[in-house]
Amino acid sequence: MKRREFIDQSARTVAAIGTAGLVPVISDASPALLVFTQSPLPYSSSSLEPHIDKETMEIHYGRHHTAYIKNVNEEIAAKSYPYSTEAEFFANASKLSDKARNNGGGAWNHNFFWQVMKPGAQTISGKVADALSQTFGSLEKFKEAFASSAMTRFGSGWAWLVSDQGTLKIGSTPNQDNPLMDRSELKGTPLLALDVWEHAYYLKYQNKRADYITAWWNVVNWEEVAKRLG
Ligand code: MN3
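That is the input. Now the predicted structure with manganese (III) ion docked in place:
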């Protein structure tokens, strides 16, 4: 229930009870706060091997992602943010504390990231292949542009393919920012994302981010990209 609706409904309930001559029962419970939840990993932590190793996946999912979820929910509770959906939360990102924004982004971005990967050889086909070729010239050119965006993001961040009102765009965001945030330069509906924080690849690839990106193409779940393209 949205906050406004809750308040309206509470007022109506009190009024209805009041007119019936009963003692109004006014709940002192606050409207339900937004809660981020960690999506289950849709495959085992070893199944993206050899491209992404088991230990990295276990630490990434079980420690980093879990911490973002816990921290954002703590901060939402501490600040009583009134946003009732994740979309609304990110649309107001510029009003959030650093803790809420960074951990909220981390919570959402990783839920998304796990979904757009899949074990086994994947092929780009159908409408996704057509749309990428049409926008970027060819599938190879799309991959080059996306990899370049992932490579040139200095420090920690994410590379994205988004649909900005039907136009496909490639870009990157710093830290845990994402294209749903009002403060993001890159805006749109995320179709594909790549985590380029060192914690995503350092155990296996050390400083060789380019090798990680090359390997990652083998585990992209293009069916999920197609679903999001609509
Ligand atoms: Mn990460």
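The two ends are 27 Å apart (CA to CA).
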